[in-house]
Amino acid sequence: MNRNLIPVICKTLGIDIEEEFKINVYNDDVFRITKTGLEKQFIDEFDGSKWWEQLSSTIFTDLLAGNTEIIKLPWKPKVDETYYSFYYRQKDETWVVTGTLWDNDVVDNALFKAGWIFKTEDEAREALPSIATEAGAKYEQ
Fold first, then answer.
1. Are 48 and 59 in contact (CB under 8 A)?
2. Could you give the CA distance from residue 62 to residue 77 in angstroms, rounded to a whole number?
3. How many Å apart are CA 37 and CA 133, to the nearest integer?
4. How far apart are CA 79 and CA 52, in angstroms?
5. pLDDT tens by residue, 104-128
């Protein structure tokens, strides 16, 4: 059999290939599954640089056997990838959904930290009423 089953395994686990996630018994470590196996992210304690290393099959086997659980991380766009969030329209003091490109700048990261970054326009539209109401703001669907 010459078929790579990792895409099927990822689908079964509810993640995309190369999607970053945590595993419930490994504290704050970040993992991803690539087409060749499970990788862990390492961070240099001196300069903060990051890199990935492939891990032994034991952790991967624990995931497949259901002995450990994936903890999904919030979606974060890549540079130049479109995301959806909210924009304050001054002319009528109303919040609206808007799409823009991720630049990884201060504004993008502040919106991400607030939980206001969405992969689709529909996801942002669904979230807008509760977020605007919580902020005491008018909004437009």
1. no
2. 29
3. 44
4. 19
5. 999 999 999 999 999 999 999 999 9
Structure tokens at 126: 């669904």
* Residue pair 85/101 in contact by the 8 Å Cβ criterion: no
pTM of the model: 0.66
User: Measured at the alpha carbon of residue 99, what is the angle toward residues 94 and 105, in degrees to the nearest 5?
Assistant: 100
Spacing of C-alpha 42 from chain mean position: 18
In the DSSP assignment, the letter for residue 114 is H
Burial 76-89 (b: 16+ CB within 10 A, else e): ebeeeeebbbbeee
What is the DSSP-derived secondary structure letter of residue 73? P
Contact of 87 with 127, CB cutoff 8 Å: no
Reduce the DSSP state of residue 57 to 3 states and report it. Answer: helix
